[in-house]
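Hello,

Our lab assistant flagged a job as stuck in the queue for most of the afternoon. It eventually completed. Since we weren't sure the result was trustworthy after the delay, we are filing this so someone can double-check. Below is the sequence as submitted and the structure that was eventually returned. Let us know if re-running is recommended.
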Amino acid sequence: MNIGEVLTRLTQDFAGMTASKIRFLEEKGLITPARTAAGYRKYTDSDVERLRFILALQRDQYLPLKVIKDYLDAVDRGETPPVLPGGASLAPRGVDAQTAQELAGHHRPLTRSELEGRTGASSAFVDRLVEYALVVADEDGRFSEQSIRAVNATLALADRGVEPRHLRAFRTAADREIGLVESAVAPLAGRRDAASAARVADEAAVIADAILELHASLVRGGLEHLDR
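-- returned structure --
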């Protein structure tokens, strides 16, 4: 199935379900659809049932995504995880050792050397990205999975003559967009319970996706004249 067909099967039980929500769950490592040779996502019946399980736990149990992911990671490794609140359970889904290792390590913070190794960037190049805050280490000096995307994107730009020093405006723009998202979710963020925290993360992701979609459409629209 493509993502549109998945939405058709889910929206009957989960009103307001969107493609952005499914992509967000994939980004967080809760679902890993197969890819065609052209890179398109393809979903199986098992993927849809896994999505139903995740969405039901969010809706009915108000569980944060991290709790759900930890449970599913244990299932994917073939372990018997603790019973979730409300007694929910999911039959283990068999995966090979390599896939299980990838799932277990998803979103593990990377050391500086791992970031350079995963992207092929030189230490000097990463230094420049850090200088311009295009990648940011945490308090332990480690980098998130998003840093891999940032490094790969800036490497592609550098190959075309766009150096990190030309990209400082992106950091400024990103900070403004982050502030916009935080303002939008502020009414929910003031609550301290786990259910509200999960809703804040989900709502922030949906807003961020819309902002990025708008940004992409404005840039691509402004370049359409080059195709004429």
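-- support follow-up --
The delay was a queue issue, not a problem with the job. The result is valid. Confidence is low (pLDDT under 50) at residues 91-107. The first strand starts at residue 34 and ends at 35.
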